[in-house]
Structure formats: C-alpha cells, structure tokens
Amino acid sequence: MADSIPPSIMNAPLTEESSLHPFRSHPHANRLLNHPEYYPIRTWSRLPKPSTGEDGYFAGTLATSFTIPHCLTLRRRWLPPLSAAHPSWPSPTADPVSSEPSTFPPDIFMLLDLATPGVSGHPSTAHGGIVATCIDEAMSLAVTLYSPPPELDASEYKGREEELTPRGKLYTSQLDIRYKRPVTVPGLLIIRAKVVGRVGRKFWVRAQVVQADEENPDQLIVTTDAMAFWLQTTSSL
C-alpha cells in the first residue's frame, strides 16, 4: 500500500497549478488529472542536481522549449501486490501488430509535452531514442514506488539535498521496445508504466506509449510497446 511508504517526493501530492496548467488544455491529460485513482507528484528526474550531475539529460538537455518543455507524473494511489513469478518475455520475432491501450491500471502515468524540432527524427516525428528515454524514465518511477530506499539522515546532506534520491540504486538491465506507429510532434505523449513482477531485487516492467489518433483525436492509439528488466543493486556496486 502507498501509505506504508515513508513521505517522499514519490508520494507527496503536487498542488502547484503552474505545473498542472500546461496539460489542462489537453482533453486526455485533463481527464487523467481528474482521475480519482491517481494524483500528480513531482518528477524526480526532471529536478536539476548540479552537485552530482544526475539526470542532466532529462532535467537539462530535454527540458527546453524546443525539446520537452513540460513533464508531469501521476502515480496510483493504492499499489497492488506484485506477482513473485517471472513473467514471460515477448518474442523478438512476434508480428508488430498495433494493439489497443491496456485495460490494466498502470502504476505511473507520465505526461510529456513534446516540442519540435528538438526531439524530431523524421519531420514532425519524434526520434525513437527520445521515445525510449521517456519510457525508461517512466519505468524507473514505477519501480521506485515498489522499492523505496532506506530512510536517510537529511542532516548529513545539508547543502546537497538533491543527493537524497528516492530511487536508490536502480538500473535498467534489459529494455525491449516495439515501435508500432510514429510519434507525432509537437504533441502530447502519455506513457503508462506498470511493474508486473518482482523476485528479490529483480523487477519486470511493462509500458505503453499512447497518443491521440490524428484522424480521431478522441481516441488514444498505441505507438510503442515496451518491456524491461530492472535490477536494484547493493551499495557495493
């Protein structure tokens, strides 16, 4: 349950309207903002950490007016227990047939306002590497919900508060991405990330990237499917 996690950036509600306003004009995003089972939190990887350089790519390089000017994370209020079984890994030779958005509630929604030309590969299309980065960031936050690090003594980090990471030592060990449709830019991107299994310090995560259908904006379509294996390491790494 979320209530068992010590207070942190991962469960403190984000209430500043200035952070929510950029997404109010997007019907799909606004519906998620009003969803009773989710609430917004600060996105840890978007906070600059100059003393360590951590997250410089996502909080700096990709946080400009022509790349990803706005990013918002919504977390699930109540987390279900995780399966202790090793989930099956999708076959790399499976046909990349477009699928419907999953009906299973994700642990994390990440909303991203993609700009142009900073994230473009082909014209009006997000570069696949940027899409992979955003998936990886959303997955990291989903895993963090289930693996908060031990509480730290904040007095030992006076002047270096950004080092009090809620993520601990979490690393992507394997990331399998299926690009099914181009991601149109500029536009809103929604990433659904869900932890589907845990065995000790090993986590398996699924994610879908959805975007409004250009021909039918009321409908969301899946542009990308992904599965990843994450590892929580010890301090001796």
Automatic annotation (TrEMBL):
It comes from the Eukaryota. InterPro entries: HotDog_dom_sf, PTE-AB_protein, Thioestr_dom. Residues 125-214 form the Thioesterase domain. Coiled coil: none annotated. Gene3D superfamilies: Hotdog Thioesterase. Pfam families: 4HBT. This is HotDog domain-containing protein. It comes from Petromyces alliaceus.
